[in-house]
Amino acid sequence: METTKFADDFTVDELISVCIARQIANGELIVQGLATPLVMAGYILAKLTHAPDVLFASAIGQSLCRGWAPPSLSHAEAMWLDKALITFGFTRVATELLPRFRPKEFFRPAQVDPYGNTNNVFIGQDYHRPRLRLPGSGGIADVTTYGDQAYLYVPRHSRIVFVERLDFRSGLGHHPARKRGRGPRYLVSDLGQFDFEGPEGRMRLVTLHPGVTLRRVQRKTGFPLEVAPDLHETPPPTAEEVHLLREVVDPLGIRRLELLSGQARRQMLREILARESGGA
Amino acid sequence: MMATGERDGQTPPSEGGAGASPGDKRISLAEAAALVQEGDTLALGGLTLYRRPVAFVRALLRRPDPPRHLTLLALTAGFESDLLVGAGLVERVRTCYFGLEVFGLAPMFTQAAGEGRLTIVEETEASIAFGLRATLAGVSFMPGLGWLGTEMLSVRPDVKVVQDPYGEGEYVAFPAIACDVAVLHALRADREGNAVLGGNLGIDQELAMAARRVIVTAEEVVERLDEPLDLAGLVVDGVVPAPRGAWPTSCYPFYPLDGEALLRYVEACPVHFADYLDAWLRGDDE
Out of A89, A94, A139, whose CB is closest to B205? Predict the structure, then answer.
């Protein structure tokens, strides 16, 4: 057997995308929501490595695609329209495609509780006077109640995201009120990977990313962590995975936007936009 | 065959002008904007940053007496909707996502919601999709999966849960969604309102079927389209030529998203919204 060559240097965005890619099985239908380039990079990486026969579906374009193109800010529709095998429109996606096929999708929660319930609606104590109104739940309040393929990712692990009690439950996790489906199976953050195999579907730390300590994860998590008995280190990206991400899958590095905020993110947006328009 | 009496046999929205011959529905942007009345539910087609009817929104905001107390309906709401909220035209918002994707939160929506100045009718993809389907089918609701076990029902006390009449389960009865005026931006249209929308359809086709009045703005308006249509002129009341009418959102494949313009917006707002809006209405940012 050939020895895997691990990358000598990699960044955390690359590690998250690689972790996402490793959750994809060949032949699956996988769905991408709005503004989730870390996920898209992971999906494409999976297609180029172990899952050549995946079918992509996306909120943008509402199409199914076998082919792919690198993510783009200015031409976000290009992949989904140029490579479309068929387009459905959003009404059919929401009422037919998603309930019928219940595909795998990665969601990014603004808050997540120990049982994988999530919030993307508001932060604060009063819905009518929120401390921070969020964009909204999209389709998360729909598909998490009946599907069984919800996966979660958190680009910036903190006590603001990982909370003991949600301010609002817009995504259903492992919760006693559940009637159909099952809660999330998996979560990846910038610190580690988790499953929900703890008591009553409680989140459990399974791997620590290279260089991350258990103490650090616990300090940045707003509830006591369950830890898998065989806690180990996340296998780092291979040299080939890092090469593909940087040179082929997402050469503009759009996935990195998800780890930035405020001025730093706007700066990077400007750099990417300039490169897309052929500038500096 | 018409769903409502408004469409057939009544005076078209425009008289005279270019659209004098029968079946010619061409009107100006200003005439289109004049169709929206105080308190209407106004639906905007497209998706977040893609193919939004931005030129129409500008015309609406340029009205000397812009209509207020609007209910804004969109599958996802972005830049164009944030302008309407910032300018104080919107009383209620019905959408499942209001934001600018990787460009950030929608600043005026976020501020108005935080101050409790907006009524938010919390929606999801399924509640909007089933709600439109209910309207089209002429029934008061469509049952669907979704919401059960979440707290969505606590912020939507108007939405009821029904027993499966044939089995054991429960479903959410997503209520029919009504709409006064729907505005969609097309790649091409002809003077009868037949239109090509491109592949990124969103919920445009259902909005057009559900709305009392439908306005199509288009990059190009031709005499007669001779290609597969996304929208039949049958349901369209007014057609407006609006080249670059989705800018700064994209109109694939004609022009890309103008990310720099969006960055200028998020950097100016909410603090300098009034100045931004003045300049934008003058056309300084084009």
Answer: A89
